[in-house]
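S.,

As promised, the zinc ion run. Input:
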Amino acid sequence: MRAVRYVTEALNHLSDEEIHQIRETKLINQLKYCYRNSEFYQKKFKEVGIVPQDIRSIEDYLKLPVLMDKDQERLSQQESMERFGHPFGMHLCASPDDIALTATTSGTTGIPTFTYTLAQQDLDKVSDGVASMLNYARISQGDRMLFSHALGVYATSAVLPGIRQAGILPIDVDVRAGTEAILQYAKMTNPQAAMMTPSLAEHLIGKSLELHQQPVGDLNLSALFTVGEIAISIPEVKQKIEEAYGCRVYDWIGPIGGTIAYSCDSDDYHGMHCVTPDYDLYPYDLVDPATQQPIDIVNGAIGEVIYTSLDRLAAPMLRMASGDIVQVFTTPCPGCGFKGMRVKVVGRSDDMLIVKGVNVYPAAIKQVITTYAPDVTGEMRIVLDQEPPLVKPPLKVKLEFGPDMDRNALPQLEARIKEQLSRNVRVNPEIIWCPPGTLEKSMAKTPVFEKDY
Ligand SMILES: [Zn+2]
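Predicted complex:
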């Protein structure tokens, strides 16, 4: 199997120490640049009581407090709207005239944040990252790609220029046009690849049969790219989608409009390979989401990823809390041999629960549960007796047993599941069994809470 490679070709010939050195030099330059060009960052440095020259290494830098989160990004935007009549925030380091692309995320409050605000040079880097992913999946010049996300000012649109730059024709059907339109365009244009959320990919499997009496395998895709949900890291979901479409699914992520990471050609999922270590520090900076204390970067470490740009002109981020909980892997990929870092998204910091002092991520529980299918259906609910994140033990988990499961065998199954959860997630839950079909099927892959307070 071909190994995934870094986007910047020269990095493929350097040692880890040399790459670390390059990141350090870029970080120091980025700090000086932000300080010179933004009042916001001048204020931040002042609050911490330092100037950029005080930071001489990545290790020095990681000792700083978290400097920004979504709420502060919104405040920064509000201030720039009031003072300068633009929504790009006081952390904008370039002239608004130099913005080549802007895209937003809405998050939980519904007020959009213009996190993906890019100068042409920033956009070119993202496009190089996207092109390298498509190239790895053997999608190339002259191919067509069904692109079905929310179009317009939304974050995924920022990858469209990269698709075009690679010589690939996007068939960009807004997801809000509905599944019927998406399938119709797919049938008419015969794309070699498609890009969408995993839940849409799963949904189309049934819809294609229902509307056209044709399996999605008849689309003859060579590659499917999915983003935005925890799904492909669950072996059953990856297998189901790959079997239905008859092609490899590549799980990818493009956080905060900078870095690109994607999964390799392996049958097993080995996380998303971080191919742009020279774009940002991702995922080298992890903290405990409850205390914001740094977490040591060792193989398998889990924490909230803190984002820092290394080479960005328009709206660089410095120690920005992303809310994404990831697990990092520092050893070479067992599948393809990629030597850089890999990440698995574990959940969101808002979903985190604390049980007996242990941080518990519902998505991690779900990953364990789904490995017991078909003895379980995979549907689950976490019953909360009080406002999270604190949970009075034991954590209550509702599980559906599978349709063919013998009820007399449930105690043994329960014992095995509990042992696995204790080992992998460090939690000893109380399991409440439900007959199949009693929990409403959730489209989202992150488990749903049932509030009992
Ligand atoms: Zn790999």
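The first strand starts at residue 99 and ends at 105. The pocket of zinc ion is lined by residues 4, 264, 266, 270, 273, 333, 335-336, 338 (CB under 6 Å).

- D.
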